[in-house]
Amino acid sequence: MEHPTVPRHEALDAAQRVPTPADLDTLSRQLGRPARDVVEIGARCVCGNPLVATTAPRLASGIPFPTTFYLTHPVITSAVSRLEAAGAMAEMTERLGRDEDLASAYTAAHHDYLAARQAIGARTGVGPVPEIDGVSAGGMPTRVKCLHVLVGHSLAAGPGVNPLGDEAIAGIAEWWTAEKCRCGGAWDTEAPVPDRDRSRHVRTQAEDPAAKKARRAAARQAGAQQDAAGEPGTAPAGGRP
Length: 241
Ligand SMILES: [Zn+2]
Description:
Blueprint: H1 14-17, H2 21-31, E1 38-44, E2 50-55, E3 69-71, H3 74-85, H4 88-96, H5 100-123, H6 147-157, H7 163-171, H8 199-206, H9 209-224
Antiparallel strand pairs: 1-2, 2-3
The protein binds zinc ion.
């Protein structure tokens, strides 16, 4: 079985992954809320707009965050939700139970996800996050719990890494394909950017070091108990926007 220590492939090169201020504004508009703890862009539309936000494996609050690749493009997130509503996850999970080749490829995808997250933690200065060692997202390696997570991984890794993410992308071809820009009208480009949440920053600045340390430890403990694919505070478990 393959246990890569570096991701096998990444869709974008280092320069393309750097989030510009305009990218961060676009992400916030796509999500309808401030984009936080985004360290890279995981995948882009042919026009350059972000499709996937890459989130730090540990949030600024100290909470470990296993869902590294977060699908943000409204056209893709809606299309993937339609697949989920049509029962794709149960069907895929059932197939994983009887198709050894698929199960093996999906386990390799799980290890690639972990390797990618570790590489991102290293190159962005976040460092190791032992609380989520061995924990990927989306139900990997044995189940399918969130197709948005798998599609986010497939888009960030490129084709051939996550078999079920690739399958889901093929399944939404009616609404979105990698070759064609579907950004027009997908979100309001004129609306004010959802406000950045500055309260945490302000509070951290004013806090005394001992209190800060205690709060971070509590946050870590809380985070370790969370569902592997959930996003703290803003979205239901499942890692979707
Ligand atoms: Zn586009």
